[in-house]
Structures are given as C-alpha cells and as structure tokens.
Amino acid sequence: MRWLRPAILAALLAVTGYPLVWMTFSALRTEGDLRAQPFALPMRPSWENYRAVFAGAGFGRAYVNSLLVACAAVAVSTGAAAAAAFAFARMRFRGREALFLLFLAGMIIPPHVTLISLNRLMGPGGLDLKDTYLALIGPYAGFALPMSVLILRTAFEEMPRDLEDAARLDGCGAFGIFWHVALPLARPALATVVIFNALTIWNEFAFALTLVSDRGMRTLPLALWEFKGERGMMLGQTCAALCLAVLPLLAVYFAAQRQMIRGLTAGAVKG
Amino acid sequence: MGSAEVSEGRSEAPRRDARPPGDGLRAGAQGDGLRAWLFVLPALAIYALFVLAPVADSFRMSLFHWSSAGATPEWVGTANFARLARDGVFWSALWHNGLLLGMSLAVQIPAALLLATLLSYPIRGRALFRTVFFAPMVMPSVAIAVLWSYVYLPEQGLLDGVIRLFNASFGGDWLGSPRTALACVFVTICWRFTGFYMVLFMAGIASIPEELYDAARMDGASEWECFRHITLPMLRPMIAVAATLCVIGSLKYFDLVYMMAQGAPEESRELLATYMYRLAFESGQGRFGYAAAVAVALFAVAFAVAGTVTWWSRRRDE
To answer: Nearest C-alpha of chain B: how many angstroms from A29?
Structure first.
C-alpha cells in the first residue's frame, strides 16, 4: 500500500496539469500540424502563433489597461478601507457597529445584482463614464471594500495599546497614529489585502464585459474572450493568446507563491 | 463567521488590552464623533455609490416594465415577480444553483480533504504538488473557459481524443447537449477550486500537534483511524469555514457557467446570475425590469441562505 498514496497524487497531478501542458505545447505548433495530430509534442517549435497574436489582437494595450485599472482600484480601495478599518478598530462613535455590519453585508451581495444599475449609472443619462477607466475602477474599488475593511480591522485591533499611548505622548493626533504607527504595523495584512484584490480585479470579467465596449479600453480577460470569438477556430493561435494571458501570472505565482497563497486563502477565510 | 488565520497561527501576544474594544483613542464622553466619521467617509462614499445605491436601484427597477435601453420605464408593481413565479427558466436556474452548491460540497471539499491528507505524509516534491493543484485559482476564469472548451471540443477535443483511442468514431457535443453541458462545466469548476480548499486544509493539518498522531500510533491505531479520530475532528472548524465559502460562492457563481455553456438550450444551462445577465445584456434582450426582478430574487436567496448558515453555525458553537 506504500505506493498507493504517491500513485493517487501523481494521477491527480496529471489530470490537473495536463490542460496547462497541452496549452503550452500547442501554442508552439502550427495549425496544420495540430489538426493532423492534436496530442503530439512540439518537435519543431514555431513562434508563428505568437507572432500572429501580436499582430493586431491588441494584447499589449489590454495589458496596460488591466494594469492601470487594477493598480488604481487597489490603491483607492486599500486606502479607503484602511482609514475606515482604523476608525472601526480604534475609535468610538455612534453607529459604529451598524456601519461595520453594513460593510460586512457586502461580502454576501452577489456582484452581478448591481450590473443593471451600474450600467445605467455609467451610461449617458448618469455619470457618462462608459469606456473610461473610471467606469471599472469605481465598482472594482467598491466591491473590494468589505473584505479589506474586515481584514484590516482585525489587524488594527491587534495593535498594542502602549504604542498608541506612546505616540500620543509624542504629540501624534489620530491621523498621526494611523499613519506612523498603525499602517506600518499592519503591513502583512495590507499585503494580503492588496494581493487578494489585485488578483480578483485582474481576472474580473462580467463587469468589464458590460461597462467597456471600446476596443482600446478592453482589459485582458475581455481581449482574450474576444480573441476566442474571432479566431477561436485557430487552435494554435488561441493557445498562444492563452499563454500570453496566463504565463506571466503563473510566473508571478511561482515566484511569490507563499505570499499569494496566503493572500488568497487568508482573504477568503476572513470572510 | 470566525476569523481563522491561515498559514500562521494567530499570535498569542496581548490581543487587546483590558479596556473594552474600540475604546482606542482618547476621547470625550461622546467618543470620537466627527473625526471618526472623517476616517470612514471615503470608504462609505465609494461603497454607497457603487454598491449600495445600485442594489437599491435594482430593487426599484424590478417594479418597472422596461423593455429596452431607449424605452421609458413603466410602473407595473409586482407584475415582474408574478411572471417570475411562472417562468420555467427561472426555476431551472434556481435548481442549478442548488445543484452547484450540492456538488461543490460533495465533491470539492472531500477531494480537497483527500489531497491535503495525502500531502501531509512525507513525500518527495510536496511543493510541486501544492503549486500545481493551486495554480488554477490564479488563472483568469476566461482563460480557463477557453482552455476547457478545447477539452470538450467535439471530436478534436482532448476528452474525445482520449475516448477515440478506444472508439474511433466517437464524438460528443459535451457543451452543447442539455444533458451534459452543465455537468461538464461543474467538472471544470471543481478543477479550479479544489486546490483552494486543499491549501486551507493543509494549513489546518499543519497546525495539529504531531504528538497526537504519535500517541495514537503507539496505541496501534491504523492510518484510517488516525484520520477519522484526529485529523477530521481537529479540522472541523476549517471544514465549516470551507463549507460556508462553498455555499456563498455557489449562489453568486457566474463566470465559467456563462462562458462555457453558451451553446446549450436555455433551461439546461442557466444559474440565477447568468439568467439575469442574459435577460439584460444579451443582444435582442434588454429586458432590464424583468432582469432586475431576477437580481432581487438572487439577492434574497443569497441573504436567506447566508443568514441561515450563520445562524446555524452560531447555534452549534454555543
């Protein structure tokens, strides 16, 4: 029975990893080769598919768009969440518990429930922001708040009281304590929040699909989706596009997997 | 829900001081009042504008008949909900959400438990296993949908390719047939999320004291008995958290079902979220009022179930 455990694991590893390996190999094979023999190794690797993807699919622009949107939304939501969480953890005011519950409820709200109204809000009759970065940054930041507030509040509650008192003796006001004491102490929690939200926003699809129609403003998931619609029959090219979308992300994951796993799981479990 | 910290146990350092929670900054008898609100305001403004107001607006829109973006909404009271009650696709969508929930609980969590347990034994390359099993969690769901649509591609896909090794004329329309479409998407969903729960359980198992196992083995306990009487009870809180995440996640779910099951007939492919989305945004639809009614139903189901789960887990804790 000694071989049983590794055998089960290896089988599951093959099932999990196979589609990823197939994708990487297929991107390096020509279309004709793929049709004749879908499962062969890339004996003579060709970069033709990658060249075809870069010519005209607008992936570069989509990368930049995704990067801008994710950075802005994460910065805005993390900043706002940190301030609010600090008040929830270290200050006393009327309506604090009710307000905190209101934020918590956001974790149960199915995001798609808001799409119809957001579509109206961003439309010509409302803020008229469709096809701008702000149309995505706003809702992304809004939906990132509940989890961020919860995680950061826990972190701020753990801040030792002595530090706070010492800072006050040195003449720090509430903002000074927040900025010079609480934030540096909460760095691990901030990292968790940033990783969790950045990845969620980077991969988000449904909001982008409704709020962006201009080709130049597409995020990466949207570009990939439209690529499949236009050239999905070209197996090799689509696999190359998939690799372009996924491999950088997987590279970051392999490099910083400890932080990423903690960011994703701690983020979710706090919920 | 509790706030279990993963990977690193909560430090035992003084968590809060003797003073009651939140009695932080020195303040007058009324507390920090205005200053505290200034801290909360930015977050509240963003949250209200982009989350709360749209939710409220969806509730309002569900009382209107609004057939296209250009038309004027027309007040119809609860007519949309009356229609919903007779809408077969709506009920099938609700049923599919239930199926997804049941399947996630019955497949993903036990599979994750199995993987985490197998990886808790000394084994070469544990890091590699963990990395690969978790990798799908990091990928964008669009990429997963595109990739797996090639797995299920009739005749040329990876799945048919394997089957055709044994039966050369086989060709299944996996994602187009009403009988298999949703089941196939569910398999992909398991592929995506099982690694996530596995990592949760691995962290949980790592925090179980090794002495418990040593003592049990000394008393002649088998591996199965160790799992049954040590691992499982010690992991109980973690399993409860995972199950809660599973429940809430399956009610909200949208991505892979929307993207992969497009070709199947309506009654056999929708979840509440995807049905709502198609009613509002699919070309030739634009039934915003009716879609808002579906959104309200989805909202109500999510809160009812989440409330029940919270209430139930609290009662168990007491």
So the answer is: 15
Subunit contact A89:B241, Cβ cutoff 8 A: no
Domains observed in chain B:
87-317 (1.10.3720.10)
**Distance from the A94 Cα atom to the nearest Cα atom in chain B, whole angstroms:** 7
Q: Hey, how many other C-beta atoms are within 10 angstroms of the C-beta on B311?
A: 10
Query: Length of chain A in residues, anyone?
Result: 271
Of the candidates A79, A118, A271, the beta carbon closest to that of B54 is on A118
The model's pLDDT over B243-284, given as tens digits with 9 standing for 90+, comes to 988 998 999 999 999 999 988 888 899 999 999 999 999 877
Residue B66 pLDDT class (50, 70, 90 cuts) = confident
Given 3-state DSSP classes, what are the helix, strand and coil percentages for chain B, each rounded to the nearest 5? 65, 0, 30
User: How far apart (Å, rounded) are the C-alpha atoms in residues A136 and A200?
Assistant: 13
Residue whose entry in the numeric block shows the structure tokens 């990928």? B139
Question: Which pTM value belongs to this model?
Answer: 0.88
Concatenated DSSP letters for A14-48? HHHHHHHHHHHHHTTS-HHHHHH-TT---SS---H
Please report the domains of chain A, with CATH numbers, ordered by start residue.
Answer: 1-46 (no CATH), 56-268 (1.10.3720.10)
Confidence of residue B28 (pLDDT cuts 50, 70, 90): very low
Q: Which residues of chain B lie closer than 8 angstroms to A104, CB-CB?
A: none
What ipTM was predicted for this assembly? 0.90
Q: Is the pLDDT confidence value at A267 over 70?
A: no
A15, A93, A162, A228: best mutation site toward chain B, by most B Cβ within 10 Å?
A93
Burial profile B262-283: b = 16 or more Cβ within 10 angstroms, e = fewer: bebeeebbbbbbbbbbbbbbee
**Residues of chain A positioned with their CB less than 8 A from the CB of B40:** 83-84, 87-88, 99
State whether B17 and A254 contact (CB < 8 Å). no
